[in-house]
Amino acid sequence: xxAFPHQQTAYRHNSREELMSAYPxxxxxxxxxxxxxxxxxxxxxxxxxxxxxxxYLQARVHExxxxxxxxxxxxxxxxxxxx
Length: 83
Known about the structure:
Layout: H1 5-37, H2 41-66, H3 70-82
Helix pairs in contact: 1-2
């Protein structure tokens, strides 16, 4: 029996969150060539720009979360676990 079973659950939840957060950007990137082939060049460029922005913001959020003071990280963990 593990001493802190919620920690493993929280870790799996984080991995799922990371996978799901990467999904919209990859879908935008994969769809843009099809739109460009159909003559929707500006829309394709906008979709690629949106994917870039999503990835930038995700990296920035991750950076802020990993450099947050310990007290903020502990409260964030409590919120995640209680969901």
